[in-house]
Amino acid sequence: MTLSKEMKKELSRSFRSKLENVPDLDGPVLIVLDYSPNNDQPPISIAFDYNGGNKCWLSESRVYAQDGLGPNSHAEYREFFFEGRRFYPYSIQAFPKDIFGDIKQFRNACRRLYRHTVRG
Fold it and tell me: How far is CA 81 from the centre of its chain?
C-alpha cells in the first residue's frame, strides 16, 4: 500500500508525519509527530498501523475512557522509540479503511485518539 500523491500533500499541509518501517515492529507505521488539535493544548505523537490493523501507538502511557470507549493498553505489541519519543502500544477499534486515503477521516482519527489522552 502506498499513500496517494494527494494524501501525501494533504498530510504535509496539516501534520508533521512520516511513513516509516520501524525496526522493532512487524510492518510500516504512519507516524504523526507533535499533534495537537489547537495551539492551546499540549501535543502528543501518534503512530497508526499502516496495514490497517487495530494497532496504534501513542506517546502517552495513560489513556482515559470516554463513555466506556477508548484505546486499550496492549502488552503483546511492542513499544518503540522514534525521534526521541517513546510510543506505547494500544489496541483500538478499527478505523475506517480509507483512513490513509481521506484526510478528513485521518484528522478525525487523530482527534479521537487525542481526546483519550488529554483531560480537560
Answer: 14
The answer to whether 89 touches 79, Cβ cutoff 8 Å, is yes
Q: Is 13 helix (H, G, I), strand (E, B) or coil?
A: helix
Q: DSSP string spanning 73-119?
A: E-TTSPPEEETTEEEEEEE-PPPPGGGGT-HHHHHHHHHHHHHTT--
Distance CA(18)–CA(72), nearest Å, equals 24
Question: Which triple of cell numbers denotes residue 76?
Answer: 503483546
Q: What are phi and psi of 117, to 5 degrees?
A: -110, -20
Residue at grid coordinates 502500544? 89
Reported pTM: 0.90
120 pLDDT higher than 60: no
43-63 confidence digits (pLDDT tens): 999 999 998 778 899 999 888
Amino acid 21 reads N
Other beta carbons within 10 angstroms of residue 37's beta carbon come to: 13
